[in-house]
């Protein structure tokens, strides 16, 4: 079971020498700062774009709790409760205390914090968790309540405030205030940029040290560019591969740098690789629909690859929401009776088709949040764009300690500059989505889960039935994925009627996918398909150390035809990879 990292790393370390003579603060610092959650949320909203006011931090009403989920009015001085004396002492495995016994942690913190303050924070957190656990709520609402509660507890953590963060205080003293000065400079920079800097953004440049695999742009319309990568082998497989990345981020997560580039490794294996680069939607394209993403996006790309490579059928691969779009397109082709004439196989990487259990993001899903979005985008979505910055903030909040508060503490309280990290640079390079497409996706997939119901939906005038897609299919999912839980990927895989190869990898949504051959840091599991349940499949699955990529190469080669002499690449009038669209900023 995955256990969350502690947000009190300093409480787990041997105590340092106290700053003040007594070694302990005389007063509760929270009492001097008002409600810490409100202060934290106000700071967060200054860093976010205008749409932050409609983020889920505007907490919903939970009838079973009798009030809006907690504003922490009693955090500094919560009155004694009758049942509190019987509340269990936090033990190993309790939320962010996975491995430290309370008495050991208290001993480490005594010289730095008032034990009363420390215990009050832990007991208050325990009280609210117990309240949510015992509240009369439906399971989905309980999950939402627990999620928003943990958001508040994360925000209210003493380490997030200067007066109760001993490392920040010590650093300020050691640097004679320079760390505070630089922290304020970092804060101003992030306010100007509209987001919290997670990496040194000056180090990276797409096309120079990111997305550098050689290739040409062979097609462009208002929505996509189609990239064709230059073969590195004398011979290539006759049947090309079309990669459809997610449209809510830039494609270069699959082409970060040569050593971990999914694209470059596939090219090196002798596959003829094409890739869709989605447009970062500008204001003039805000009325694009889901059907437009199918027709002008993937279906057009399939036609262009077939024409450019001079072949009848191609292999396809979809990643995350790119896989959902691809699956919809293949269902359209099946309904038209054209699927087997155009597409040989499909690969899906961490893709949801059955949205019954959509992972941690379900805390943000509900009629209330949908209505908020309709208010801003209009009933048909044509009034505006879904901001990529808001989407990025929503996903970051799913791991708030790692992707928000960690940087608040280090960048602002301690005045440190974030290190250069290519993955985090990509993570912050989001794309806008058109309002109609976004609302359609939210309503029909996440809220109503229509995609898996035969003939429940129409796309491009065709009834959608995933079971009609009977081509060979490779499914990859990640064991610790919090966006596409592997059990949901398993349920999604049951939609297909063709031969299915189901593979489970270690790690999460991104790290599990971007796992190149080399040092065997992670494993993957294979097993017989179909199986009665995810648990039944897992119980009999075979574990193999190392990357799952070679396993996929072997599978894909069987569907890629014979090897032929690689064609000489001609310089395109549309320019070289990575193209123009990936360079467009919000």
What's the topology here?
Elements: H1 9-12, H2 29-33, H3 36-47, E1 61-62, E2 67-68, H4 102-109, H5 115-134, H6 139-155, H7 166-174, H8 178-193, E3 215-220, E4 224-229, E5 235-237, E6 241-244, H9 262-268, E7 273-278, H10 290-309, E8 314-319, H11 321-336, H12 339-342, E9 343-349, H13 367-377, E10 385-386, H14 388-397, H15 400-413, H16 422-427, E11 433-434, H17 435-447, E12 458-459, E13 462-463, E14 473-478, H18 486-493, E15 500-505, E16 523-526, H19 534-540, E17 542-545, H20 549-557, E18 563-565
Parallel strand pairs: 6-7, 6-8, 8-9, 9-14, 14-15
Antiparallel strand pairs: 1-2, 3-4, 4-7, 5-18, 10-11, 12-13, 15-16, 16-17
Helix pairs in contact: 5-6, 8-15, 10-11, 10-17, 13-17
Provide an overview of this structure:
The chain is of the alpha/beta class and 586 residues long. It contains 20 helices and 18 strands. It folds into 2 domains: 9-176, no CATH class; 215-359 and 454-578, 3-Layer(aba) Sandwich (Rossmann fold), CATH 3.40.50.1820. Helix 8 (178-193) crosses helix 15 and helix 13 (367-377) packs antiparallel against helix 17. The chain starts with 8 loop residues before the first helix and ends in a 21-residue tail after the last strand.
